[in-house]
Amino acid sequence: MTHLTFEQRVASFWSRVNKDGPVPPLHPELSNCWIWEGASRDGKYGQFSVGDLDRRQAHNVAFLLENGRWPTIELDHLCHVTKCVRLEHLREVNRSQNIRNRAKRICVRGHALIEENFYYYAGGKRRRCKQCIGARKAEAKV
Prior knowledge:
By secondary structure, the protein is an alpha+beta fold. The protein is built from 4 helices and 9 strands.
């Protein structure tokens, strides 16, 4: 088994990031999101293996690569796009503040979950983005 150098792992990480992501619909004043396109957990948070460590959330790895350390507390996505790894969209917050900020107002691809853009399923307990469904159907036709 070949082990990659740190520089190769860094290059591998950034090769999975789309830096031409959407402008966050809830915060258009922010620059566009950098969307993680690698592996994910439940389609929400990106995942990346760091050396011999277990998989870590991609936004935490981006923080490590930029700051040389893991976040000391949780990272909050100011953009509310869970697959975003752009450092300007992340801030360290305590757990209770992060939970308050998690009210799901946009899907993982950055579409606003406003009433006309989603439908309920699972007995009204979950929402699904209509734009994402349309995009998946279009991709399936290709």
